[in-house]
Amino acid sequence: MSSNDTRRKIDSLDLRILELLNERANLVRDANGNAAAGDPLGDMEQHAAVVKQLERAHADQGGAFPSHALEAVFREINSACVSLRESITVAYLGPPGTFTHMAARSHFGMSADYREGSTIATVFDAVMRQTARYGVVPIENSTEGGVSFTLDCLLEHDLFVRDELVLQVSQCLLGLHHDLTRIERVYSHPQALAQCRTWLAKHLPSAQLVVSPSTGAAAKQAAEDDRAAAIASQLASELYGLELLRQNVQDRIQNATRFIVLAHTDAPPTGVDKTSLVFSTPHKKGALRAVLEIFDDEALNLTRIESRPFGSRMWEYAFFTDFEGHRTDAPVTRALERLRNVCGHVKVLGSYPRSA
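Above: the chain sequence. Below: its structure as tokens.
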């Protein structure tokens, strides 16, 4: 086949793809009475299951299209179609270019209406006040552990965890020039600075480490400071006109951050779920062991447990716990009932699909 024939065939296929996209968009837009029609995130959650089906079909067909690109392509198709019916408003820890921004876009797609929050607390407030339907905040890093601001806000606000996202994080050193000897300050979020402490001590030992509210804010500050650099994402370098000085400056190459999606309701059961809760125990011998025995009795697999000071109560602690299962599952229901009998405080933060 000649190059001209190939080009004509591709053009014809592109027109057919466009026809199918319009047909799909019309179906979604006119889906009155559909169970998911009032819940845009419900469509996004169904999208994850649909993509898995498509990936299996793609493997069975021995398709030539790159399999790793299927999720991104169909995420954007789904995001665009859902937006025809209702705008998806998503608050995130900003400004643009943060890893939270990247995580939100990877989940909701380019067609969502993104609202940046200057702090984690303002993201919670936006969802509470319903100026955003959903919120995305970091909750845990594989190197530095839990994000204390998020844990505190979960304790204080009546919001649910609706979903979780895991993003592989490559920390980059960004600046206006490549001369590291001229760098006197390094801006970044406390978690990012902690993830890069060894690299910074070795390569920029004299630089002052300046805490910023987010990695995106750090990049913005570095763009206005000739003697500074920022630790942030590669996306931030593009958004703020900074040079990419070094990549992967985190101390551990395998570095991932877990994010959660906040909403006024949690997710329906999928069969592959996780539940988050927070509880407190009385000050007596064996109290925590008694709680852990409840999880063991019900064969619930704990994936995380972390203690935090319990609000304004001095020397009292709340335990943030994640375990496999949905709150509507019988073993989880029994465990929660037993926990309420032995704990001073029990709050279910949400049940949601486990991230792959």
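The chain has a mean pLDDT of 87.
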